[in-house]
């Protein structure tokens, strides 16, 4: 069970700031995204713009294998614009 | 969710500040500084306070960058910017670099949205460092700004995040 955090456009689409979801401990980044998109089909619109931050490290939505621990934080990161 | 009702009360809303300081400055001889995380205030970003945080008798130069809200974008009137942040990660990213204050919530035109400051023994290093700092912060910090127009709003986004194409 991990915590997914939503920001900016992704928070508007899902209507959520965060939620907990249940996923396998070993999962590819893209598979994790698909899990999330299944729950929130509106996120398909931004799929090509999203990056994850897994335990506060940026991870692309690709084949990278994530090793998740219970309670890990996964942030959905749309294109940033600080400063 | 963003409320589309723009009224003068928006500009009285508390502006939250994000204050990051390095626990060690990467300069000739350093001083330990205590770290403040979040400061909530109705006032504008405190340039004086930022200066006091970085000024040191060991340093002969302080360089400051202040980013302010513009009131227009591509011909549209911008009522305000609105910032949100992934706080714990932003804090971790920034504290390696320099002293930064960043606005959260609404930042109306002419107000500062970001102040970054670097001090050094001599001016070349601090000028270069503050330029590097702001470039790096903009490329890396998990912070988002939304431009609020009269009739609509738009999330801004840099599609290259720390070398990753989005």
Automatic annotation (TrEMBL), chain A:
Q: What modifications does the entry list under PTM / processing?
A: C-terminal thiocarboxylation occurs in 2 steps, it is first acyl-adenylated (-COAMP) via the hesA/moeB/thiF part of MOCS3, then thiocarboxylated (-COSH) via the rhodanese domain of MOCS3.
Q: Does the keyword DNA-binding apply?
A: no
GO CC, one annotated term: molybdopterin synthase complex
Q: Where in the cell is it found?
A: Cytoplasm, Cytosol
GO terms, biological process? Mo-molybdopterin cofactor biosynthetic process
- Taxonomically, the superkingdom here is Eukaryota
Coiled-coil annotated residue ranges, if any: none
Query: What NCBIfam families does UniProt report for this protein, alphabetically?
Result: moaD
Role played: Acts as a sulfur carrier required for molybdopterin biosynthesis. Component of the molybdopterin synthase complex that catalyzes the conversion of precursor Z into molybdopterin by mediating the incorporation of 2 sulfur atoms into precursor Z to generate a dithiolene group. In the complex, serves as sulfur donor by being thiocarboxylated (-COSH) at its C-terminus by MOCS3. After interaction with MOCS2B, the sulfur is then transferred to precursor Z to form molybdopterin.
Q: HAMAP family, per this entry?
A: MOCS2A (MF_03051)
Q: What protein name applies here?
A: Molybdopterin synthase sulfur carrier subunit
Instruction: Identify the species of origin.
Output: Rhinopithecus bieti (Black snub-nosed monkey)
Which gene name belongs to this protein? Answer: MOCS2
TrEMBL record, chain B:
Write out the GO MF terms. transferase activity
Does the UniProt entry include the keyword Cytoplasm? yes
The Gene Ontology biological process annotation of the record reads:
Mo-molybdopterin cofactor biosynthetic process
**InterPro entries linked to this entry:** MoaE_sf, Mopterin_biosynth_MoaE
- Pfam families for this protein: MoaE
Could you confirm whether the keyword Cytoplasm appears in this record?
Answer: yes
The organism named in the record is Rhinopithecus bieti
Name-wise, this protein is: Molybdopterin synthase catalytic subunit
Question: Origin, by domain of life?
Answer: Eukaryota
Which keywords does the record carry?
Cytoplasm, Molybdenum cofactor biosynthesis, Transferase
